[in-house]
Amino acid sequence: MPISDWPRTERPRERLLRCGAQALSDTELLAVFLRTGVRGKTAVDLARALITRFGSLSAILAAERAVLCEQRGFGVARFCQMSAMMELVRRALREDMARRDALGSPGAVRDFLRLKLRDLPHEVFVGLYLDAQNRVIGDEELFRGTLTQTSVYPREVVKSALARNAAGMILAHNHPSGVAEPSHADEALTRALRQALALVDVRVLDHFVIAGNAAISFAERGLL
Length: 224
Prior knowledge:
This protein has helices at 12-19, 26-34, 43-54, 57-62, 65-69, 76-99, 106-117, 154-163, 184-198, 218-221; strands at residues 124-130, 136-144, 168-174, 203-211, 214-217. The protein has a 5-stranded mixed sheet, sandwiched between helices. The protein is an alpha+beta fold. A hairpin with a 2-residue loop joins strand 4 and strand 5 (214-217). Helix 2 crosses helix 3 (43-54) and helix 6 runs antiparallel to helix 7.
């Protein structure tokens, strides 16, 4: 049965308008994004099939274009729309961080880093560059590695911080294994980076480890 034939109280779009997006299920939210179905399947049917196929919304958002576009009802146009939506969210979070003290808005920093790193299949090390008021003035992927490790060179991090005229940095990397707990190697690397950056008067405010929805803060753990 087409969604237009459903009772108005059960249609995803009408429920969103009445109750807010937070009231919808993952399937309903994805159906609103898809807007229309295909012959014999509603947008809700397509959304349910996609979540079943990939296992979660985050896996859908992280999927490669070729994999997504081979799914029925999800072509290049929808992939472009989804990519644009994700980039809009990243830019909105980046703007939020740029307006406020990063230490005073830890939620925005965490959300940005989760969105940037959590679903990558390989390790990535990134830096957020801060001005003297702890506002984010830029972000950069500094190193990319394999499934289990990334080589990070303190000299290159220092060069990047100086090039940005940064007064401080927030460091972050992901654990594709899904285990967010910092390793001894992570702690040793953080100490080395703090010492190297301190030589040029750049403070390390925090180091986050991202795995899935978890974002472990070294500062909160007392590891800085």
